[in-house]
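Subject: Sanity check before I submit

Could someone independently write out the structure tokens for this chain? I want to compare against mine line by line before I put it in a report. The sequence has 461 residues.
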Amino acid sequence: MPGQQPRSNAETVTRVAVIDIGKTNAKLALVEGDTLREVAVVSRPNTVRPGPPWPHFDLEGHWEFLLHHLAAFHAAHGVDAISVTTHGASVVLLDASGGLAAPMLDYENPGPDALAAGYDAIRPPFAETGSPRLPMGLNVGAQLFWLFETQPGLRTAVAHVLTYPQYWGFRLTGELASDVTSLGCHTDLWNPWEGRLSSLVDRLGLADRIAPVRRSGDVLGTLRGDLAARTGLRRGTPVAVGIHDSNASLHPYVLGRQSPFAVVSTGTWVVAMAIGGAATRLDPARDVLVNVNAFGAPVPSARFMGGREYEVIRAGSTAVPSDADRRAALSRRVAILPSVEPGSGPFPGRRMRWTDAPATEGERLVALSWYLALMTGTCLDLVGARGPVIVEGPFGGNPDYLDMLASCVGAVEVATSATGTSAGAALLCLGTAPRVVTRRVETRADVSLLRDYAAEWHRRA
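---
Independent answer below. Compare away.
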């Protein structure tokens, strides 16, 4: 197993400021090095601006937010290093002066679908990239193709293409880079088996414009002098290259655990990642892909928009399911069949339906949790996951989700020490990796009833 990357800064790093940009929220977290605990957190909505010219992200709003709170964190606690983690499926296009060549496209914009046939004619096969063909702008190659075909002069104006974590690194240090985990997130731009850019890069005319590819844990550079003066951070504060958010959740386990195991990263996206899994044929038609971890190694993965689906069905309800709700949902087989978000996941194109109308809010919410667990179990099966399954993120606090998942896959664990995207990103700056402590999810007494429910769900799904 590869070891932790060495830190270039000789001084002890005790607190790492992590820029953590998810699809729903942008946050800054201050992570304590010896415990990976977040000692301070601030966030703002990652609101998509409607345009013109197209739906795009508020990069300048994020930038001012981040600088303001970097200064506040340093004044209150001290900041020794900076790391970055962001959602995938995103790049930033820079012109020769280092400014934006175009606003950063929201990957949920359907614009690229209009030119799908033209893009399909040039994109490499799954066997080369491990990247499934996805709708909208979920393939970065499709974003670039659509932008270049519909915006005259843009291809010429673009001097540098940066993956998203490294855009923030560029703003902080002035250094250009891309990282392997972000390029490996269904962009169509990376060959994970050979560790190099795919043939699509040449076809798009970008061979000399993709920013240099770096490992996530490398030191990208040090904080610019003007930013050190503005925030109060010391000159020479190191900034890590950065990492894709699902891989940030995976990173502590890659560092400190023997395979086989699987990690389920939960948030807007639920991503199941198999380490040392069984050899299996990966089916790109079911949103299965090959991610790339912080060391550049391929990681078979499958995913669905579980956090988004949770919010859609929950619809703001604060009800807490009772045991009576659980018994009723089991006996009447109250279930959600896929998919709440039909544009992605293991059942693409399927529209959700209820097998039976829930009689109470509690029944509705317990059926929702079980649906999310069954979708997760399906993803784990698709990537040949073996060994214990470790649940990261908010679903780790949902007992109904955990009970159903454990009934389907066996050993399920939840981290009890500090973990998640911010902790994983902070590890990029640290010389040691604290051991992640987990607890085993105990099997419920009525596990046979849960398994019967799951079996029927699979038959009907």
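---
OP: Matches mine. For the report I'm noting this point. The chain is about 35% helix and 20% strand.
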